[in-house]
Amino acid sequence: MTYPATTGEFSAASGPDPHHERSAVIDLEAIRHNVRRLAAAASPAKVMAVVKADAYGHGAVPVARAALQAGASWLGVAHISEALALRAAGIDAPLLAWLHTADSNFGAAVAAGVDIGCSGWELERIVAAAREQERPARIHLKVDTGLGRNGATPEAWDRLVGEAVEYQDQGLLRVVGIFSHLAVADEPERPETDEQVAAFREALAIAEDAGVDPEVRHLANTPATLSRPDTHFDMVRVGLGIYGLSPFDGTTSAELGLRPAMTLRTLVSQCKEVPAGQGVSYGLHYRTREASTLALIPLGYADGVPRVATGGPVRVAGKTYPVVGRIAMDQMVIDLGAEASGAALQGAEAELFGNGADGGPTVDEWARAAGTINYEVVTRISPRVPRRFINEDESAGSGQAMAGAPSKAGAA
Length: 412
Prior knowledge:
CATH architecture of the largest domain: Alpha-Beta Barrel
């Protein structure tokens, strides 16, 4: 099934389906497989599927539904606006939003039953929203155990916990969770993770001594879920892993039992024969060494492909070619060589990355070409690239769906 591109609705009467021209194909059975794999690693802890940033570019609503089908109990997003979009789509699973500003709509979050991450400064605003909505807010207190971003410092933790307990006793809120975030879990040999776990346990002890009885304590991200059982507590928050990508340098998705869910593909726009010495793209930093055939690939940095990723792989007709010359806003070029038939490849499928199962190009190769991480490559694929979702029906997948898996997690 296809969904309308964000640039407008599609009618079959208006011409060819724009999803065929270029698309990011999202395999929802891969999402379900990955959630089941991570749930097995985390058990008996629950799983929060992180679907912030439009599910890392994969499509928040379809991915959220697939994750819940596969056994995720919670969903996580950064912004309240992202949480409200999921609620508007009819998703009523437990849902946490944790990154706020003074203009965040705490009232809407309380009204929609969205759990709110609280680092300290937000508490009075959350309480005011609870009074306005005449219902208690659900909050997760966040402690900074060493990452240095949001979360209360250890020095401020006692006071935050004490104030939260006072408001809880007044019926204005419920402390549902306590959480923190790990800084270097993707580098398992580093000692800072041990230090953060110890700091988190100390913060939990302080909260429990103050009378807080949280439903969920959560610290682990994807790498910690896979490598550090001592970080699992009551729930793990998994983002990258549910999209089938490895958080560990030197370890592939396949080695972790994960399946990349996104395939970025298009059609070869033009093929042309050129002489030796032909310059390619802005700056003419690449010139053909011999008479050759150049193929134009109609994706560029406006579509989210990193401009600096010259050398990134593109597969056409079973062969992979590096991008040559500078990547432009809308297009890039590959050099097919002297032997290729441009006439045969005009209009052929061009895959930038996929699941890699058949030796095709991967997100990790593009990340290396761009000098970045796989997280960024998939997340930055822009709304100009239509998303096409396959295997939406759980029964249409690989047949590995968990028997009896719920279609939706119940509200807490």
